[in-house]
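Exercise 7b. C-alpha cells:
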C-alpha cells in the first residue's frame, strides 16, 4: 500500500512539474509568483531523480543476472519467474479457446493441404508437369504395386516441384456466396499435397471428405490472415463414427465451410536478396519502445551538455525520423523521375516542381530501364532481354 501511495504522489508531482515547465517555457510573464516559487524549489528534483536512476542503472550493469536474481525480494522473484515462464510458453505451447494448453509445437501451424488433383493443376499451370512428374503421380495414385521407397521418391519429386523453397500466398477478392459482397482476403501457407496412399488414420478421414465435397485446399485457421469465413473445429467425438474395423469416418452431418478463390491470385513469395551490410537502421518498433520511456516533464542531458525536457526530446526524435523519411522519398523520386542538371524534379515542360508548382512528376524511361537492367543482371537473365532494355 505504501509503495502504491508513493507512486501516486510521484506521478502527481511529475504532472505538476510538466505543466509548470510548459508554462515557464511558453509564457513566463503570465506565471504567478507562487508558481515561480514552487518552480525554484523543485526544478532540480527531477534532474536529481534522473541522476540517481542512472547511478542505480550503472550499478546494476556491473552485476550478472544471477547476482541480480539473488538480491531480489522472494515475492518479486516469484513474479519474475512466472512472467518469464508465461512468455516462453506463449511461443512453445498452443492455447485452446477455453484457456487450456495443448503441449508441444503445433506442426500444422500455417499449413494447407491440397488434393492430388490440385497439385497436378498447379504443376501444369506452372509448366512443370514433365514425364518424370507424370510417372510420380501414377506411382502415388496406385494402391499396392509400388514400393515404399518408390512412393517416397515420387512424393519428393512432386513436393519439390510444387513447393520448392518458397511458401505460397493468396491475395485478392472473392464474392461471399450468400450476400455477394466483395471480401478481400490474404492467405499465407505452406502447401502439402495429399495422396490416398499417404493419408492414413484421421488424415484419411479428412482426405475422403475433401474428395466428397470437391475441396481442393484445406487451410488451418492460422494460414488465413484476412478474409476467412469462419474456421470449423473438428470434434471427432461429435462428427465421426466407427465402421467395421473401427476406422473413424465423418458422419453425414459434417461438412467443411467452403468458398471459392481464383488460381489467378495464388502465387509464391518473392525471393529477396540477402542484406550483407554490417550496420542497420534502428527499427520503428524499437524506437517506439525507447520513446515510451520518456517522461514529458523530466530533464534529460544530451551528449553535448544541452539540457532538454522529455516533450522536446520526443519532438526532436520525431522530426528527425520525418526528415529521414522525406530524404528517402526524395531519393526515390530522383532515382526514377526526370530531373534537371541540378538534380531537381521537373514536370513534362521542364519546370521545377516545388511548393508553387504542383504538376505531376514524369517517369524517366532511361532511369527506369537502367534500374530494371541492374536487377535482371543479378538474376542471370536471358541476354536478349537485357539488350532490349
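Sequence design result:
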Amino acid at each position: 500500500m505504501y509503495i502504491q501511495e508513493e507512486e501516486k504522489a510521484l506521478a502527481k508531482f511529475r504532472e505538476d512539474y510538466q505543466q509548470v515547465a510548459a508554462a515557464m517555457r511558453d509564457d513566463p510573464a503570465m506565471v504567478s509568483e507562487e508558481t515561480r516559487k514552487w518552480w525554484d524549489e523543485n526544478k532540480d528534483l527531477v534532474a536529481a531523480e534522473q541522476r540517481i536512476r542512472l547511478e542505480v542503472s550503472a550499478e546494476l550493469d556491473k552485476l550478472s543476472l544471477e547476482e541480480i536474481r539473488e538480491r531480489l525480494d522472494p515475492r518479486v522473484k516469484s513474479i519474475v519467474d512466472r512472467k518469464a515462464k508465461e512468455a516462453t510458453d506463449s511461443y512453445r505451447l498452443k492455447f485452446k479457446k477455453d484457456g487450456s494448453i495443448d503441449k508441444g509445437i503445433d506442426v500444422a501451424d500455417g499449413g494447407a493441404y491440397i488434393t492430388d488433383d490440385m497439385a497436378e493443376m498447379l504443376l501444369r499451370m506452372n509448366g512443370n508437369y514433365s514425364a518424370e512428374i507424370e510417372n510420380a503421380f501414377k506411382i502415388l495414385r496406385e494402391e499396392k504395386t509400388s514400393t515404399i521407397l518408390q512412393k517416397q521418391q515420387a512424393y519428393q519429386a512432386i513436393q519439390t516441384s510444387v513447393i520448392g523453397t518458397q511458401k505460397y500466398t493468396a491475395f485478392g477478392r472473392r464474392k461471399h456466396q450468400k450476400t455477394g459482397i466483395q471480401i478481400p482476403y490474404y492467405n499465407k501457407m505452406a502447401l502439402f499435397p495429399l495422396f490416398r496412399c499417404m493419408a492414413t488414420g484421421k488424415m484419411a478421414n479428412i482426405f475422403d471428405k475433401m474428395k466428397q465435397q470437391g475441396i481442393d485446399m484445406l487451410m488451418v485457421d492460422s494460414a488465413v490472415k484476412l478474409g476467412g469465413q469462419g474456421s470449423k473445429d473438428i470434434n471427432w467425438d461429435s462428427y465421426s463414427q466407427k465402421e467395421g474395423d473401427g476406422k473413424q469416418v465423418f458422419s453425414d452431418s459434417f461438412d467443411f465451410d467452403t468458398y471459392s478463390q481464383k488460381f489467378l491470385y495464388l502465387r509464391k513469395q518473392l525471393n529477396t536478396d540477402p542484406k550483407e551490410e554490417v550496420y542497420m537502421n534502428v527499427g520503428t518498433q524499437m524506437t517506439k519502445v525507447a520513446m515510451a520511456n520518456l517522461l514529458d516533464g523530466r530533464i534529460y542531458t544530451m551528449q553535448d551538455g544541452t539540457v532538454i525536457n522529455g516533450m522536446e526530446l520526443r519532438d526532436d526524435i520525431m522530426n528527425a525520423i520525418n526528415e529521414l523519411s522525406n530524404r528517402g522519398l526524395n531519393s526515390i523520386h530522383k532515382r526514377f523521375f526526370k530531373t534537371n542538371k541540378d538534380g531537381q524534379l521537373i514536370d513534362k515542360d521542364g519546370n521545377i516542381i516545388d511548393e508553387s508548382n504542383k504538376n505531376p512528376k514524369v517517369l524517366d524511361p532511361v532511369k527506369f530501364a537502367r534500374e530494371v537492367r541492374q536487377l535482371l543482371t543479378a538474376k542471370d537473365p536471358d541476354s536478349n532481354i537485357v539488350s532490349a532494355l
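Instructor comment: Residues 337-389 form one domain. The longest strand covers residues 182-194.
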